[in-house]
Amino acid sequence: MEKSRFKYMIIPFAIAAIMQLITYWGNQWYSEAMGIVGDDLSWIFLAFNRAVPFIPATVYIYVLAFPFWVGSFFYIGYRSRRNLAFLIILIVITFTITGLTYFFFQTDVQAWRETSGLFDRTDLNFTESFVFFIYNSAGARNANPSMHCLMSWLCLLGCRMDKEMPKGIKAFIVIFTIMICVSSQTLKQHYIIDFISAVVLAEGFYWLFRNSKAIDKVQTTLFKLNVKLGLDSEEANT
């Protein structure tokens, strides 16, 4: 493993991290400060939402999404600069749209969470207490589209871009992505429309930009910036 190859991913990762902080936490802070509750979208595919069981143990999959996103991002970028550039394009576009959606059309899942049966109980076990901690940490806003599903699906798209990725690793990314999306439902963190919106958003721009010249332009821009900052060399752009 060439440690130097991770250097050129510092700036792209910083871009992704800043976008995520603004999109999700920025909107959480703004909505809370302004007292914005948001719309409840449970009425969309209501029968499906009601049929989804609450499974507290899936909270561990939900939380493991965070290292999964970081690991997938660096693995995709380590294997291909072009795929990294494509991933950054998808992140910037989809996160921007998601952030604007949260800002102008805020949604809320508090009523959905309360069907978990955890509220007003004093006998919660460790896992149930952990779920309650996640509820309090994340807030009930920023529901549609689901960023958990969006970010996980972008990881899945990243592995789809890489036709030579080892099958075992590719299978793991696909399976874990699906598990994260399922956990967003079984933890009562999202309605099914939140998942659908996230996938449509990611897939839509993937197919729109997959043959775009913008990918090469972003790759070249990142390369030149990294060279100026001493994070890359002229000979390394392969």
Radius of gyration: 19 Å
pLDDT averaged residue by residue: 94
The number of distinct structural domains comes to: 1
Helix content: 55-70%
> What is the strand content?
under 5%
| Main β sheet profile | none
Using the alpha-carbon principal axes, give the shape: globular
From the N-terminal CA to the C-terminal CA, the straight-line distance is: 16 Å
Question: Which residues sit in consecutive blocks of at least 5 with pLDDT less than 50?
Answer: none
- Structural category is mainly alpha
Q: How many strand units? A: 0
Describe this structure in words.
The protein is an all-alpha fold. It has one domain (38-229). 68% of the residues lie in helices and 0% in strands. The protein has ten helices and no strands. The chain has helices at 10-34, 46-51, 59-79, 81-104, 110-114, 126-138, 147-161, 167-186, 192-209, 214-228. Helix 4 (81-104) runs antiparallel to helix 7. The longest helix has 25 residues, at 10-34. The chain is globular and about 60 Å long. The protein starts with 9 loop residues before the first helix and ends in a 10-residue tail after the last helix. The model has no long low-confidence stretch (mean pLDDT 94).
